[in-house]
């Protein structure tokens, strides 16, 4: 009996081993199939970003057509009391605001429906990445609704759009500054790699030379007369900000190097230049030509570049959700995690709808803008100047805050030791 029992034990274990081997072989194809599905869904999600970018670009073009050529392209809008006598309240400034409101409604609804999406297998991920026919219908409804809203409510939306556009500018500034910080750490972090440090030093030199040349060119073109006191103040204060950023970056307590401050210097010089370029053409020191209609191919090319810049700025800020996480940890994304935050992406595009509306009407709800122009007027000038100063303030705070925090911790430790 003992021999028979001993001979039976191996035989009984053989089926179990076979079953375990077959289950493991079944798990491997299942996991491989899951990874393939996750990869396909992730690629589909990444491609969807560009589709939303194209929708946003087309919305900008439609808003421009309503502003400059709406009466020619759409001489008779559907009869609606909201458009007023002869549909005047659906063209020009009101037309831009109505198109902007439609774009805002669409992306805000997408924000509500995709917010807090975590995994690729969720239904909301499929809605974000697909179902384009249904979303096209939703987009059409979103664009039609504002043309039946009374003008008083559209004016109220215009006031709210100023606030939303300001929030968008702050998010864009933070995203740009974080990118500059990352670039500086990428080129200057490895002290052992001399080639990397030399490239970083060369790039910082180039950026500072470009900044100084930009200030000199602005003095020559826009501040050559003593009567141009406002332009002289704008350019001079920009030069002061450049010197302050360089000195603080090189301070022994900060020690951030010249690359990040050089890139930031070029950025604020660019903002100062765009602010001066936005001054109205009626001013003596303004670079804008006093012409009716458009000013030739240079004006058209500048308009196209500005239009593309709006879309690129909105797109790049929308995909940069990692910068705005309050709790940043080193955990890596899992295989079935979404590649970017869908809710934040659509929220930035909804704020971008308010932003392009303000650019097309030059931040002024009561004036008519010149054809083939974007963001021209004193309101636009001051918005850009304040944007420049705010960018420099955020950057300087990012340089000083770690030093202040370290000093506070050291003082706290000293007081604890004394106690």
Automatic annotation (TrEMBL):
It comes from the Eukaryota. It is found in: Membrane. Residues 19-33 have a biased composition (Polar residues). Residues 1-36 are annotated as: Disordered. One of its GO terms (cellular component) is membrane. The chain crosses the membrane at residues 50-67, 96-117, 129-149, 161-180, 201-224, 230-250, 257-276, 296-319, 340-361, 381-401. The keyword NADP does not apply. Keywords: Membrane, Transmembrane, Transmembrane helix. It is a multi-pass membrane protein. Pfam families: Serinc. Its main location: membrane. Belongs to the TDE1 family. This is Probable serine incorporator.
